[in-house]
Every structure is written in structure tokens, then in C-alpha cells.
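ugh ok fine here u go
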Amino acid sequence: MEGRTHHSALLLSRKDVERVLTPIEAVRAVENAYREVGLGTAVVPSRLRVDMDRYDGNMLVMPAYLTGANALATKLVTTHLNNHKLGLPTVIATIILIDPENGLPLAILDGTYITAIRTGAAGAVAAKYLSREDASTATIAGTGVQGRAQILALTEVRRIKKVFAYDLDAERCRKFVEEMKNHVDSDFAVTDNLENAVRESDIVVTATTSSKPIIKGEWLSSGCHVTGIGSHTPDARELDEEVMKRASKIVLDTWDAKNVGDLSYPISKGILREEDIYSDIGTIVAGRKPGRTSVNEITVFKSVGTAVADVSSAFRTYELAKLKGIGSSIDLGNLTKET
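structure:
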């Protein structure tokens, strides 16, 4: 015998997501996600990639299940390098949140903003565990969408008094500084001398598309923490091999990060061994390995993105939206069920 049940899901636009998922909420969500990875309570299959060479684009399917939070979702994210010619974002994402108990969709969320803010939060969580607690000066190399997300999240975990902003596009860098002054209580300065900025910084964040290293290890001051966010392919590099040689702790968001150019190049040249990589960040957040243990050590966090951060951030967005009555209902129709 068959019956019918009516089902609807919550639809959350980018504006809806922006209203509820603040940088501090994202930091908490990502930290919880990393903790589940470290505790072994996260189920994270390998991402699936579909290339579309004719459009110079690709699509990633990124599912994960956090058993502790009981949160299940998958992100569909596309990267089209020519989208700027169409006035569209290079990266576009959608996240589908699923009820683990019965498989019904709970929500469909714009994932483009979540992708940006959760990546910023990833850098902040790493800084919380790996940078000095008294870190007060930062350099951000790359002042696009991710540069903004990194600074907004970083200032939630560290009292940053001075930020040096660097970008090959001087006008974009200037606009970044003017915008950030309205959101962050820090002194911002445009710089065209990246070396000097890095030498003066306690925290260095790279968020560029560079294929050649822009940060040299010899520039890093004692006790500096470096977060590499921009490069995520074998042929892209932001940090030179000397950065890796000087680091006492190299930490990854996921072990896939060892395959990107920042690490794969020095490994291929025998400058770095895979066993020299200290830990993934989840193991540290879960308390199974210590983070920073000395004020003088140089630490590096390399991130390529992980679905657990998307799932945790999307689930928290859903919870907050439901609580505040934000979003619209999408009718999925009558579903057939056996009775």
C-alpha cells in the first residue's frame, strides 16, 4: 500500500546566508568540523572532479557527513576561469543539506559565499592554534574575495593592530584597504614592498593565483606563522622551499594538500620529506597533538579546502536561518512512500 507525504526544503540565497553566517560563526563551525576530523567522527569521501576543457572549467562534488553534529551535505562547486569576461564569479557553489535520518533535503543554500567565508575561517582556526597569542601585525598578499575573508576571520581570533595589504593590482588593493577600514578595527596600509611587510609581520597570509613563489623563507621573522590559501594545484606555488625548510611545524587542512606545488615541489627535489609534515589541523584541534609550543618557532598552514568545513558551515547557517525565520520554502511536491 502506498501513501503520499508532502515535503519542502528551505531555500537560502546568498543574501540570506550573508545575514546569518558571520565570520565568528564560520570560525566556530570550521573549528568544530576540524575537531570531528581529528576525533575520527567525520566521514569524508574523496571529492569527484569533472573537467570541461571546452569551457576552461571544472566541477567538484564534495560530500561529507559529520556524525557528531549529525550533519550531512554535499557541495557542488564549479570553477570557470573565463567567467570574469561574463561578469560572473570564477567560483560558483551550491550546497544541498540532507536529513541523515531519512535522506530528505533539508535546505538548498548558495555555497559561493559559504565557500569564501569558510576558507577565511580555516585560516583563522589555524592561526588560533599555530600563531603566537600576541601576534599583532599581519600581511595579506592578494586582496580579492579570499583576502577579505581571511582578514575578517583572522581578526576574530587575534588582536591584529596593523595589516599590510599587497596586490599586483594597485587599485584593487586600495579599494580593499578602504573597505576593510569600515569592518575591522586595525590600521591598514597598502604596500608595494612585500619583503619589508613580511619581515615586519607576525602572521603572513597568501591568497593569490600565483604559479611562482611570492614569499621567501628568508623574509620570515622568528615566531612567524604563515597561511597559504591561494594555490591548490601541483603547478601553483605561493611559498618557496625555504619557507618549508624553516618551518618547525607544517600543518595541512587535509592530507591532499601535500600534492600542491608549495609542498610537492620541495618534496620532489628532496628538500622536504613527506614525514616532515607535522600534522593535519584536525588532529591539533582535537587535542591529539600540540599546536605552537614555542614563541620562536615558524609555523605553516597549507589549505586546499575540505568538505567538512562546507558541511559544518552550511548546517550552522541552516540552524540560524530557521531560528531567525530567514529564507523561503521550496516545494518538493508529494513523495511516494510505502505504508
